[in-house]
Amino acid sequence: MSTNLPPRGRSHAIRSRRTFALAITGASGAAYATRTMAALLERDCHLEVVVSDYGRRLLRDELGEGAAVDRLREYLVETYGDAAAKGSFTVLSNKDLGATIASGSHDCEAMVIVPCSMKTLAGVAHGLSRSLIERAADVMLKERRRLILVPRETPMSLPQLKNMVLCAEAGAMIMPAMPAFYQMPKTLDDLAGFMAGKILAALGFSHDLYPKWEG
Ligand SMILES: Cc1cc2nc3c(=O)[nH]c(=O)nc-3n(C[C@H](O)[C@H](O)[C@H](O)COP(=O)(O)O)c2cc1C
Question: Which of 24, 39, 111, 186 supports an S-S bond with 33, CB 3.0-4.6 Å?
């Protein structure tokens, strides 16, 4: 892309990318988030990323200091290759309820919360909008746009199960972090790739993140 575009042309060029909100919360499974981010960036998407406080801790605890939010871009390229630098992303504060994705008028076609904690799931189920993550999810539901929740917990309490039902009834897609084993995964990245592939398929992308079942 030319760097000499006038400001208007440049912003149009950025907006023409498919834009998604991607939230990372404090449920185990940071690699599901980074694999999904990398796969969407490889497809030249723009991501509006929000990481909760426990999501920030999760990235460092499970992937190391190198995956801290302020060096996520470098981490994605180091881990998944140069193609992860193709798209763009902005990190928004979870406290900023005036950020872009807090409004239905913003051009963001879908949202993924990966991984999704039971706490955030409860907030979405009850439309609380206490944080940017909860508000953006609420926006997706009210605008009838795709909202994909990737919860991880085991076992689950009745309130947690009921909250998933509430979200599903409101139109969200519940995609539990449950990688399959029939593709014979050999590495943790194979498991993360399975979930990232399911998310990409739900967003309408073709991919080869896991081998397709041939029967
Ligand atoms: C090491 C660790 C692992 C956790 N794993 C999970 C989990 O798998 N699922 C979950 O729902 N919560 C888990 N939690 C609890 C959440 O992080 C906690 O409820 C937090 O308040 C979620 O906030 P958030 O949704 O704003 O990120 C974990 C917490 C820690 C410290």
Answer: 24
